[in-house]
Amino acid sequence: MTSNEASHSVYSENVDLFSASQNGSLYTLKLWIMDAKKDFNNSQEIDIRVKPTTLGYYVTQGLMQLHKTQQLCDAILVAEGKHFPCHRALLASFSPYFRAMFTRPFRECWERQVVFEDMASSILQIILDYLYTGRLLLIPEIAQDLFTAANRLVILPLQDIIGRFLADSISMDSCLEIYALAYAHNHHTLLRVASRHITLNFEPLSEHESFPGLDLSTVISIVSSNKLIVSSELTVYQAVQNWVRSQPAEHFSLIKKLMQQVRLPLLTSEEITRVQKDIIAEYGHAHLQWEQLDGVGRLLKSGGLRHGMYDDWIVSLGLFVSNMQGGVVERLKTHFLGFNLQTESWEEIPPLMYLDSSGFLSVGHKLYVSGGQRLNGSVLCNLHEFDALTGRWMQLPSMSVPRREHGFLACQQKLYALGGRSCRTVLDSAESFDLEKKSWSPIANLPFAVSHFASASLNKKLYLIGGFSHTRANGLAHRGILIYNTSVNVWNQMPLAFQCYKSTAVAMDNGIFVIGGLVEESSRRETPGTVIRALISGTHKCFFLSKDGTVSQDVAIPDLPILVLPPCAVQWRRRIHVLVGNTIYQWKPGEAHWTRSRKSAPNTRVTFLTVVNGVTLKVPKKTLQPLLREASAALTALWVTDN
Description:
alpha+beta, Potassium Channel Kv1.1, Chain A, Neuraminidase, 3 domains, four-stranded antiparallel beta sheet, 17 helices, 34% strand, globular, Kelch-like protein 6, repeat, SKP1/BTB/POZ_sf, kelch repeat
């Protein structure tokens, strides 16, 4: 390696070209190869102590020797006037490109020379060295040219190696060029890495010096992405306008194509006024096309919000008094309080009628509430949906049976209602709701009736942890975990060394964090044949459950700072957040303590009885909410035209 190479980040790969394993006992081999030009029958001796060598090793070594001495070469690759004798069989074995060239009726099939007009000889030399030796010395200065050549020649292992190198070395200065490279060659792995970098940093990257150098199709692929982290569509418009201004071609045809990717219906009235002035000033004959649209129409015509146009909220479900006479509660409502995790501010969501012990979950920008119990004791089978885009509740088809204290989980565009209670009956039934078909279907029954358990969804499986089982063998205590495989519609059981009730389960990484709840301290049986009565108390304790359903001691979770029943816990950005009264505590795996949030819930004009359940919800940013929730139609800009 030269001193210049040593000063760079060097990536080295040693590859066994034939993936051959070397097994067996040691044996002695001494091989004296006389002059390679002499007759191959000359004497050979064995004396070198090595492991048994595979056939692949001999083939590799033989090809290296033939290449070094330029023997039996039947093809010559030419780049920048430099000739590289090589072997067709080797090239064809690695590259479908060369295999087609040498086996089909192309000129190169009968001519020895293959000339590459636009490839550097140094790049071709590196590729041939890799093919013959399996070794690759890779530095940033040549990585992109080498990647282009490897893709052109369809050398798959080399593409993967360089793709990994480029992905590992991606930066703000290189990600646009790497994205363009990956997009041009349709390299999915590298494209995914570069795309993520761009979507997270779109605004500064759109002002980077390399952005104007992207071609039109590459720019379109970027600005059309739903994943852009931009709070306003004006950022996308400005990026498009700046790119067009830097191009030598006729600008209006470019802006007309690119403005099809700008979601004009998502611009506020002030923003669209600014865009309109720009268009008129830049292209006098052009104007905006308008249409009368309400909030739902805006959303449909725009194609939806980009990822950065949402805030993440923790939404907690609680019960509050909406009417009290003479100290007696006459009316209760289900109340939803939202904590904006980006701004650390508290907001409210329109309430529902009173529903105690409901199932509660979120999918993207929608909340779902299933079942629950009314103030008069009746249990419901209703399913309600709240859409954060429209700010409205609607009722969906009901479950087959009323449920409360049940499991309610989402997995692969389906909602699952599991076990629970129906009036005085404990349930072992389960059903799923298809979010696309808007219909319920029964699934396999639980092994036994159970309620008051913690539940979580992880890797296409549903976990029900602890709870009250109501079986003769176990009485009220269920020391176990039920695991439902959604792919095969089968339940499995795992033991649990202790009881837990009304805990909260949070799935993260490769396991489930079980937070607080109730535990049995002691129990007794009143009379033979009756159920067990237990002394139950709250716990600050938490534990970690591996995906196989076993409790892991390797993950230490600190005790909750304050006892809360039931705990309202969610996961966001690899942190667990627990709502305790009007305060949020957060913890990240590896930390020794829970940290209290600086912001407390606002003073409200309602009297809270309890706060239960919590989920994270995607909510449109405040500037967009009036546009999306507008009930009456208004003139809305859609695209640029010159008609």
